[in-house]
Amino acid sequence: MSGVEVGTELPAQDFPITRRDLVRYAGASRDFNPIHWNERVAKSVGLPDVIAHGMFTMASAIRVVTDWAGDPGAVIEYGVRFTRPVVVPDPDGATLHVRGAVRAVRPDGLVEVDLTCTVQGQTVLAKARALVRLRDGGGAQPGRA
Amino acid sequence: MALDQSFVGRVYPPTAPYEVAREKIREFADAINDPNPAYRDPAAARALGHDDVIAPPTFAIVVTLPAGHQVIDDPDLGIDYSRVVHGEQRFEHVRPVRAGDVLQVVVSVDDIRSAGGNDLVSTRAEVSTVHGEAVLTAFGTLVARGTT
Question: Among A50, A77, A97, A116, which residue's beta carbon has the most beta carbons within 10 A?
Answer without folding.
Answer: A50
